[in-house]
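Retro notes, structure queue

What went well: the backlog is down to a handful. What didn't: a couple of records were mislabeled last round, so from now on we paste the full input next to the output in the thread. Example, using Histidine kinase from Anaerocellum danielii:
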Amino acid sequence: MRMFKINMIFRNLLKYFRSISIGKKFLAVSYIQIFIPIILIGVLSFRISSDLIFRKYVGYTTDVIKTARLRIVDKINELNSITQDILYQTELYNILDKSMKNVDYYDDVASLTNKFRKIILGHIDIQSIGVFTKDKKLCVVDNTSKEVGLDEIIPNQISFEKVYNIAAKGNGKPVWYVALQKNDKESKVAVLITRCINNPQTLKFEGILVVMINTELFDKTFSELVAEKSQAIAVVGDSIFISTKGEINKEKILKLMYQVKNKNGVVTYTSNEYIVNILPIKHVDWYIVTSIPVKILFRDIDKLRMWLIALCFLSFVITSAMSLMLSMDFLKPINAIVEATKRIRKGEYKTIENIDRKDELGILIDNFNSMVVKINHLINSIYKEQITRKEAELKVLQTQLNPHFLFNILESINWLAQLNGVSQISDVVIALSKLLEVNLKEEKFLTLEEEIKYITSYVSILKINFGEENLKLEVDVDRKALKLRIPKLLVQPLVENSIFHGIRPRGFGKIFVGGYIWNDKLAIIVKDDGVGISPEKLKGIRKDLEDDNEIFLEQEGRSYTRIGLVNVLKRLKLIYGKDASFSIESLPQRGTTIKIEILLDALSRAVEESIQELSGEGEEEDV
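Corresponding output:
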């Protein structure tokens, strides 16, 4: 059911898409092709950039806290070594021994104090050094700074019992301890190194060594490594923040630290508010912590997002404008073609103008214009042919009588001529009957054999005026050519022109009519030995034959000779086009030769088209 609904939705969308115009389709496809890549590129770019910035920050922070750990570990090792050097002092053991025996140890204290002072002056990271006896009495305390020293921390802030317990955990090794100093004004952090003092000879416990560290050591380490003001960094030991730079959520950091106690390397935690990196310092069970607000870290990402949005919008506007211009460039010729086809449907055969293109649309418009020109030419040609045919039919109708009545009259004349023994009148009547028979036929095409018979009858009638011996007719036609069908009365006007304009001026002559087939063409030759045509007049006739303007029998200012020849040529062009040719040659007092050549394929094609036209007219009449 779900698939059916999806298919229906898809079909409706497809149906709607097919119903809209090409312009809307083009714009829709263009916007889809523009919008989707821009969104994908923008989203992917933002995502990749965000990941790169995040990884870059994590990598940078990791390097920072690792470097800080190395420095702190170096300091721890250095300070542990100092405590070891203190244990090598003989005065220390003399003081502890005399203190246990209640012997005066003032001179030894003075000597050891000087050595402690040198150590403190040589190491600014050491704030105070103290030695405590086994019975928890202060033996030596040296505090040369203005800061709070061990004499104020022990036992006021940290009891002797606790200090001894812390030192005992190291079993002779240095133990780092972080304590929180509390007073009325503020709370400060104290970092102590405690170590048991064992007699080197008896290895018995005789006291403890306590070294107080200056916490500015860690502040200097962070200030050199951290350049980002918004980033917070801290060293945490014994759940106390020893040194902190920047604002940091201490409660959340302490909760996260409990989760990474047994882990190695940098551990990163990401929330909606902060990104926290934690690195354990295994030597002293401390932690280095960095924290940065997410909004600060992604401040550059937000700028990148805004730039991407602006660039995407700008790209969308530019590409949309280009797509709109391109679509208008395509739609203009398409709309011109559509409007032209609408005009053609209304019967207005006009070409498309003012479109200067060389692409496929330009080729389509050129072909369309060429088609319109050909249609106009064909319409005009058919129109001319119909006018010519109607005029010929009108002329025939104007001169013809009722066929049956006319043939009855001619038959009566023939019977009277034979009855009275006038054979010449009988021959003329028979010839005239054959002429009328051909003229009255409705067929457009006759065989060449029928055309020759018509010419023979026509010449036999004219011999009455010229005399039997003064007008001769010679016919030479191939047997195959006799069966070919040509337009009715195509040759007769040529014979008529030869008789009246070539032979009659001199009073006698011979007409030759030939029909031959060669090179897939039918050649018809009409030749006379009359007076011929002068070069000037022949040039004018040829010019008229080459003129494509409409020529009618009613035209004035032209001789009957030209009219007959032009009409024959016009019929050839209308029926056969370029498949037929017409030529005329003449010399004064030597005669004139007219030659017609028609392709055999064109002859058969014209007859078939005529048959189809007649059948089409018959069907229309039936309807």
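Agreed that this is the format going forward. Reviewer comment attached to the example: The first strand starts at residue 126 and ends at 133.
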